[in-house]
Write a structure and sequence with these properties.
By secondary structure, the protein is an alpha+beta fold. It is about 25% helix and about 30% strand. The protein is built from 9 helices and 16 strands. Strands 2, 3, 4, 5, 6, 7, 8, 9, 10 and 11 form a 10-stranded mixed β-sheet that branches. A 6-stranded mixed β-sheet has the order 1-13-12-14-15-16. α2 packs parallel to α6. The relative contact order is 0.18.
Length: about 325
């Protein structure tokens, strides 16, 4: 739902909707969902994608171990500025857990239901890129799909930063049997699913088709940064506020046009033009209701600017 502070219209002379960008423009500020194969690291896959597009920058949203396959969001050039948001997306996985001893199915299901749903405590494994200290993570669901002897096939939905390898190990310890992860595939990251994912070979082929003046396949793969963050609440601003925001100025109440409901103070928000262009990511300094009612103060502090300066004309105040 939206709260309307101003009914301002946008001037068609400035900027353009993400859907109106050329493929060349899209490459400079888009996310592509790679279906990572087993073998390479996430860093290697990202480097290959960067090379395909001759991009200056590339980054991935959520590391997958070399042996793990599946959904890997890769941001290109300007879209790397939304990486902090992409990395924090909830994830879903399909996993095969191998128990070191067989256990009754009812015992397994009860253990998972009682101990491994909702808030759990987890210490990252030794081979991880983060500090090894216990931390809380949320398991949204844990569905056992099939049990064959000591092998348990399950689907799990979890908070970003949950280690499935460690989850399997902790389940084995709780059962008293021991267990380890034998296969893992990420099937979803935020709203991105396997249906959105493409092999690097198909990405490279689509890029070559585009160079031969056939843009259809590549355009379908490139997700503008604006549409890659549906989980981030948005504030749409007047044309008169855009240039100041591009220069790092905060957003004031007079610059806000339309506000998404339930914004909380301190929350990361997307500052958008009325043409749905992402100007910047910001930190909310007011709630949605306060933005609607207030005439003074700071609505949001700019954190990362994505839009180039000069696209919209200068005005005196945001």
């Amino acid at each position: 739902m939206w709260l309307v502070k101003s009914e301002d219209a946008t001037n068609s002379e400035y900027g353009k909707s993400p859907n109106e960008r050329t493929v060349g423009e899209l490459i400079k500020s888009s996310v592509i969902i790679v279906d990572k194969n087993a073998g390479p690291t996430s860093h290697q896959v990202t480097a290959w994608a960067k090379n395909i597009f001759s991009a200056k920058l590339a980054g991935h949203g959520g590391t997958l171990d070399p042996g793990v396959t599946g959904v890997l969001p890769v941001a290109l050039d300007n879209a790397t500025k939304i990486m902090s948001v992409l990395s924090g997306l909830d994830k879903e996985y399909i996993c095969v857990m191998h128990l070191h001893k067989e256990v009754p199915e009812d015992v397994l299901r009860k253990t998972i239901s009682d101990k491994f749903l909702g808030k759990i405590r987890q210490t990252p494994p030794k081979k991880s890129a983060v500090e090894r200290r216990e931390r809380e993570r949320t398991i949204h669901f844990f569905d056992i799909l099939e049990i064959e002897g000591k092998d348990v096939l399950f689907k799990v939905g979890c908070e970003a930063g949950t280690y499935i390898r460690k989850l399997c190990d902790d389940i084995g310890r709780t059962l008293g049997t021991g267990a380890h992860m034998s296969e893992l595939r990420r099937t979803k990251a935020g709203n991105f699913t396997e249906d959105d994912a493409h092999s690097l070979v198909s990405v490279r082929d689509a890029f070559e088709f585009w160079k031969s003046n056939d843009e259809k396949k590549l355009r379908a793969m490139l997700i503008p940064a604006e549409y890659a963050i549906p989980n981030v609440k948005k504030i749409f601003v007047k044309d008169s506020a855009v240039d100041a925001l591009c220069n790092g100025a905060p957003l004031y109440p007079s610059g806000a046009a339309r506000i998404q409901e339930d914004i909380a103070k301190g929350e990361t928000v997307a500052l958008m033009t009325l043409k749905e262009e992402l100007i910047a990511l910001g930190i909310a300094k007011m709630t949605s209701e306060e933005i609607l009612k207030r005439k003074t103060g700071i609505v949001a502090r700019v954190d990362r600017v994505l839009m180039q300066r000069g696209i919209y004309p200068k005005w005196n105040k945001a």
